[in-house]
Every structure is written in C-alpha cells, then in structure tokens.
Amino acid sequence: MLRSYIVLYCMLVAGASAFANDYQQLDATIHPGHVPDDGGLESGIWMQVERYETDIRNSPRRIRDEAINRYLHNIVCRLSPDYCKDIRLFVTRTPFFNATMMPNGLMTVWSGLLLRVHNEAQLAAILGHELGHYLRQHGLDGFKDAKTKSNIALLLGLGFGFAGMTTAHSGYSDASNIAQFVLLASRYAHSRAAEREADQFGIQLMAEAGYDPFESARVWKIIIDEEEAAKHGKLQGSPFFASHPSPNDRLTTLDSYARILTSEKADHGEKATDRFLEHMTPYWKTFLDDELRLNQPGKTEFILDNLIDNNVVPGVVHFYKGELYRQRKETGDTDLARQHYQQALQADYFLPETYRSLGLLQLKEKRMQDAMANLKLYLEASPDAEDREMIEYYLTMGQ
Q1: In whole angstroms, what is the distance from residue 53 CA to residue 156 CA?
Q2: Eight-state DSSP code of residue 344
Q3: Beta pairing partners, 63
Q4: d(CA 222, CA 194)
Q5: Which of 377, 384, 339 has the alpha carbon at shortest distance from 361?
Q6: pTM
Q7: Crossing angle between the packed helical segments 138-148 and 192-209, to the nearest 10 degrees
Q8: What is the pLDDT of residues 188-232, one digit of tens each?
Q9: What DSSP character marks residue 294?
C-alpha cells in the first residue's frame, strides 16, 4: 500500500512538472457588461434563455431565502469581481449534484450540490467551473450547436418542465421524474475541451480569490466515490454525469494545476469551513429530508458517512443516519438507528425530532419509561409541533 502511495505521488509531481511547461493563464472571451447585438443569433438565443430564466425565477422549487442566495452570490463575486453584476444566481430545491451556467449570465445551483461539499472552497471550485464556461462562452457555443441541429426549443422545453414541476413533499421517487432530470442535466452538454477549459479557469479563479485550489480535486473525489457506490449498489447515479465526462482523469490534472498555482505561495489558501457551515446550518434539515425521500439507502448512507467523517453538523447528520436505518428495517437496523439517535443527542446542536424518533423506537420495543421521557422532551422542545396531538396520545399509553 505504501509503495502505491509513493508511486502515485511521483506521478503527480511528474505531472505537475509537465503541466508547468505548458500551463498558461486563461483569459475571458467576454467582457464585463456584455450585451449581444440586436438581431443576431446570440441575441435570439438570449431571448429564448430569458424565458427559461423567468420560469426558474417563478419556480416553486426556487429557494427564495435571501441569506443563502446572497452567500452564494458573494462567492461568485469573489471569484469574478469584474463580472459580479452580470451574474444572476438562483438556488433550486433539487436533490442531485448539479449547477448550470447560461450564456446570458444565469447560474442555477441545485441543493444536492450543497449537500455534497464540505467547505466554501469546494463550493467555489464548482461555481468557478461554471463561471469558466461563461467567461469562455461555452454555453453560447452549445446553443449555437443546438440551433444548428434544430433542437433548441426541445432543450429549453425540458428546462420549463423542470422549473414548473412539483411533487408531494418535494420528492423524486418515480422513475419518470428522475429520467427527466437526467435529460435536463444533459441539455447543454459541453465538449471535453470545454470541460478542461472550465476546470482550468475555475481553479485559476479559486487561486486568485485566495481559496485553496487543492479543494477542487477533493470535491471531484467525493463525487467519484459516490458514483462508484451508486454503481456497485445498482442505484440511480447523479444526472450531472449525463452531460460531463468521467471525472477520474480530472484528479491528476487538477492536482497539478493546484501545485502550479501555489508553487510561489506560503500557504495554499482558504477553505472557509466554519463560514460555510454557518451559512448552511439552517438548510441541512430540508436538504437531508429531500435526500432521504429519494429512497436510495445505499447512496444516502454514503453521503451521510461523508458528512460525519468531515464533522458536518453531527447532531443533524446522525439523526438522519438513524432515520435511514429506522426506515430501511433490515436486520440490525433498529440497533443502528438507536445508536445514531443517541449520538445525535450528544452533539451541541441537534434537532428536537431526535427525541421523537428515539421515543417512537423505544415505544415499539415496549420500553415505556424511556419512550415517555423522550416523547415529553420532544414536546417541550417543540411546543408548536404539528404532530403534538398524536404524541400526546402516545403519552397516554404510558399512564
């Protein structure tokens, strides 16, 4: 094993040396405040994309909370200050890993992406990648290609369908919905050359903004590992990879870029983990609720384990790990659920629902005294709980 790591390290160093000879900074091919000339092809494309933007703006899936939108937009502005006013960013409640960038400056970020990154630098890596597509006008090239093939209306139609779609509890359980999201994610597929450029421009923007560029390769490693877990478990993979090449070859390249960009710096840059966690804390419950409803226990378990390993709000994540096992109901899952509920309650911050779930589990096991104690604690912590009447009924069972 040690020999393998030494060989890998030598390959990375050698790769960095090779890249150093060829590496050149990329420049934007679009100027700040760009507006296309009237009557041209680009102007027509912008008009069609603006219809899509209106649909996204009004979508019931759009997360309108000002705090999270301002936080993400501030990261975009830090990455590309000259283009800050040109970018409109929307966050949508969609539990898959994806972000998109349109030629008119519209950026969308799916909530599933926010669930899979563990610090601000990793988030900046993905946003920088999308900005790379915009600054090099890859989206415009993609739309021109779609126009040539006479299918741009169909592609935008998929976007309209997504923006207006609603399902009970924001769930994504039926196969037709998942298939539509896969088609949606592939509608603006970029070439491998464009992906490489976006990778390089994104990591370049990260380094210039003071982020740790090594986090770019790390976030891709997370997604690679998740996809491998999905394949082995025969689960639904992320639709992000319907439009992007396999990321395995990116790891060595991104690591080499990071070595070049930090070669003359005293430190690698900022990860901003605490700031990321501070801004995301109000949303973990919603994002994990949506993930759990996908009913992909193997993949969800991988995501939760990753969050636990990175010490991301353990009181919340352990609760959802318990919920996963409680709902799965395989041999030994009851004990595992109980263990994770108890771990959640030991954290500095946890959800009141942890008392409820642990109490209901104990009630099923006929451990009446423990169950009643936890159900009472739940009602004390959540005086306005929607299920108060039901919990009060359960409490009468212990009298």
Answers
A1: 10
A2: H
A3: 91
A4: 22
A5: 339
A6: 0.82
A7: 160
A8: 445 778 888 999 999 999 999 999 999 999 998 888 888 777 766
A9: T
